[in-house]
Amino acid sequence: MKVLNFGSLNLDHVYAVDHIVQPGETIPSTAYELFAGGKGANQSVALARAGATVCHGGMIGNEGTWLRDKMDDEGIEVGNVVVADSPGGHAIIQVDASGQNSIVLFGGANQQISDEHVANALSTCSPGDVLLLQNEINKTAELIGAGRAAGLTVCFNPAPMTPAVQEFPLELVDILIVNEHEGAALAQAADVPDIAPALRQRWPDTRIVLTLGEKGVHFLDADTELHVAAYAVDAVDTTAAGDTFIGYFLAGTLEGLPVKQALQLACKAAALSVTKPGAMDSIPLRGAVETFVG
Question: 175-189 pLDDT, tens per residue?
Fold first, then answer.
């Protein structure tokens, strides 16, 4: 089985700051770096580094073709990554002294996916393959429906969370991976203990994975409810923690690992990712994750 990850490809402009800028405030940046990123691209790299077979679908601007080449070097199939005649997606990221971040996104070419592009990418899949989606491209709702119709296991990470997600056919999603903010919005529940049960009640056929940062992760499906603790590390940059978790969790699941082991693997990988700066470049290799004690 393989994963078709139809998602964003961004260039990440990262600025080191003493604190996240407030409205009306101008502050200096102490450092600047350019990284490969986008939730879609990051999750594809995490899948590949975890050992999964992954194909990426998406669009990128002419200024970002090096990102497609970088993904190809990671062993990701990039035949469905199309170069647009318009600016590509990018992110402006502030990272403060504690490693916390604030992100502004410009969708660019990520918002120009066509029906033909979707059909071409899905035609490369077989029933039982996994379709992974985020919320940084257009056609996400259509992809959910088309993926389910093609017999794929649909995994959706509604990041960034927008009001439009409430109108997506989420009853067709097999695995829903959300953080506390996304889960609370979808569940309409303010208290963390209520989020996963509320999501499960709304979509009873969906496996719920609720990530809680340093508080770990909660999993709920028809047969299993469990919590896995996070690993304590000194955070430098949390930008890719969620994307790393998703890639490693899906890779572990596809390998046939029990749910708890797949979650532990993903938590280890996410912990390692926050100890380095950047997004894609911070995603650890499988060997480092396997030897990490925590």
Answer: 999 999 999 999 999
- In the annotation, is 243 catalytic? yes
Interaxial angle between packed helices 241-254 and 259-273, expressed in degrees from 0 to 180 and rounded to the nearest 10: 150
Give, for 192, the enclosing helix (H) or strand (E).
Answer: helix 192-202
CB of 169 within 8 A of CB of 135? no
CATH class of the domain defined by 3-8+38-88+109-291: alpha beta
Which position among 12, 129, 243, 281 bears the catalytic label? 243
Model confidence at 278: pLDDT above 80 = no
Q: Give the residue-averaged pLDDT of 186-204.
A: 94
Helix (H) / strand (E) element for 288: namely helix 286-291
d(CA 130, CA 191): 31
Q: Are 285 and 46 in contact (CB under 8 A)?
A: no
Pairwise CA distance, residues 124 & 45, whole Å: 19
Interatomic CA distance for residues 28 and 156, integer angstroms: 37
For the segment 70-83, what is each residue's pLDDT rounded down to a tens digit? 999 999 999 999 99
Q: What is the pLDDT of residues 2-29, one digit of tens each?
A: 999 999 999 989 899 999 999 999 999 9
pTM for the whole thing?
0.92
Query: How far apart are the C-alpha atoms of 106 and 57, rounded to whole Å?
Result: 18
Helix axes 180-187, 192-202, angle to 10 degrees: 50
